[in-house]
Design goal:
With 272 residues, the protein is α/β, with parallel strands linked by helices. The protein has one domain: 3-Layer(aba) Sandwich (Glutaconate Coenzyme A-transferase). The chain has eleven helices and twelve strands. Strand 2, helix 2 and strand 3 form a beta-alpha-beta unit. Helix 5 packs across helix 7. It is globular and about 60 Å long.
Length: 272
């Protein structure tokens, strides 16, 4: 049997070099690897590239802490309750980060190209948009003679995909209950995959129900078990969004250190 891949959150974040490109799983305030993101801030990581179709809190807090050099993203928001992501927006407006703006489908197409091992992926739905010209995307003619042109998105291969899951085992198999958003294609496109899990489950529970495995162990380099690691977001069906905590985070006059100090993984470290 392969050796266990269990590590601590701090050790996992330490494996991320400055300047790395990270694909972060989940969507908006739901099942994002937020404890991992906060650990990157604690370790003062810099010049990171963040890749995500629908980031919010994760990209925003990394921009707030000065960890980001570039973002490849579609919609970026804190959802309807809170509107836009203010520190991300400020970083873009002040040109503190480079933004490669995408639609969710174009970023997905780039990840698919990397997963499939091809240099680009066709995509529909961007005709009439400024995105192709902003990003210098190419168009190719249909080789089968229809006369139509289609935009093609260059491959996007993250250095590491970091996915927050409900359960993982010591070998690295991981499963998600409910919607897995773009996590599957992120895990197939990236050079490495890190898993942050709510619970460490027996290997037997995966072999008994293999159809529930979203990310198989052979793709995974490391697993950290962090209960409530998606806080202040949700992880269905375990817990919902902590809206008061998000509201407190959004207070522009409140120090980031106060928010960080209330994170569940920080409390566990202090209690230990």
């Amino acid at each position: 049997m392969p050796p266990p891949k269990i590590t601590t959150l701090a050790e996992m974040a330490a494996r991320v070099p400055d300047g790395a490109s990270l694909a972060l799983g989940g969507s908006f305030l739901h099942r994002g690897p937020f404890a991992f993101v906060r650990e990157l801030i604690r370790q003062r990581k810099t010049d990171l590239e963040i890749i995500k179709q629908s980031p919010g809190y994760d990209l925003d807090i990394l921009c707030r802490a000065g960890c980001v050099a570039k973002a490849r993203a579609g919609i970026v928001a804190m959802e309807g309750n809170f509107g836009l992501a203010p520190w991300y927006r400020r970083a873009v407006e002040r040109k503190q980060i480079v933004l490669e703006e995408h639609a969710c489908m174009t970023l997905t197409a780039g990840l698919r190209a990397a997963a499939f091992g091809v240099p680009f992926q066709p995509v529909g739905g961007v005709h009439g948009s400024d995105l192709p010209s902003l990003n210098a995307w190419a168009a190719v003619k249909d080789p089968y003679g229809s006369g139509q042109e289609v935009w093609v998105i260059p491959a996007i291969q993250p250095d590491i995909a970091v996915i927050h899951v409900n359960d993982a085992n010591e070998l690295g198999d991981a499963r998600v209950y409910g919607t897995y958003n773009w996590d599957r294609i992120m895990s197939r496109a990236a050079k490495q995959v890190f898993i942050v899990a709510e619970t460490l489950a027996p290997v037997r529970s995966f072999t008994d129900r293999p159809e529930l495995t979203l990310i198989p162990s052979f793709m995974v380099q490391a697993v950290a078990v962090v209960p409530h690691g998606a806080w202040p977001g949700s992880c269905w069906p375990l817990y919902e969004v902590d809206y008061p905590a998000v509201e407190a985070y959004m207070d522009m006059d409140r120090e980031l250190s106060l928010h960080m100090a209330h994170a569940p993984e920080r409390q566990e470290r202090v209690d230990a």
